[in-house]
Design brief:
By secondary structure, the chain is mainly alpha-helical. Helices cover 65% and strands 4% of the residues. It contains two helices and two strands, in the order ααββ. Strands 1-2 form a two-stranded antiparallel ribbon. The chain is rod-shaped and about 210 Å long. It starts with 36 loop residues before the first helix and ends with a strand. About 11% of the residues have low confidence.
Amino acid sequence: MADLTPLKGDIVTATAPRIEAANLIDLPTPRKVELEPHLRSHGMLFAFGIASLAVTGTLVMTIMLSWQPLQSLKDMNRRISALDGAEARLSQHMDDGVQSVVNHVESRISGLRSNMDGRFDQLDFELRGVDSRLTEVRHSMGEGVEMLHDTSARMDEALSAAVVEISQLGEMQVAARAAAKSKPAIDPFIVGAVPAGGTSSGGGHATPSSPEAAVARFQRVELPDGSVSYRIK
């Protein structure tokens, strides 16, 4: 038997097997089956029942498969409704709290404003009282200054009169001493009767011609504290 193994480089061609007509088997021709009418109606009913059952099963499966999502949607809807209610209550609570705070702040501001107005009115009243008292003190001080001026003027007059009297007494004592040295028998009080511009009988000092001449011997000096002093020129 020859070796039919293809060698390297050979071209192999495959051909379809041939069926010889002599080997075919003659099959019988199928006959058309005619069903009876009642069997045909029963078959249609059976097919319709199968189809209805399939549709019902499909609907049941669809309902069963969609039941859980529907429940999830209902649960989500309830939660959203609860959140909406909580948000509404929180918003109302916040509005009430804000309004309460605003009312409290406004009441505090109103109380502070009324308190400050009362204090300002009291301070104004006290300032008016102080102003009136200062006016009275100013008037009293003016009257006191006028009284001091009058008192100072009267004291100046009294001091001037005292200085004149002291000067006269001094001159009289000097004249009396001079007369006593020249004439011991002469009474010292007689010296005051010597005429103005004259001299004593013993040729002593002359008596002052007037009080103004005696006052002219002293200088009036006002001290820093407001007092008055007299110094001999």
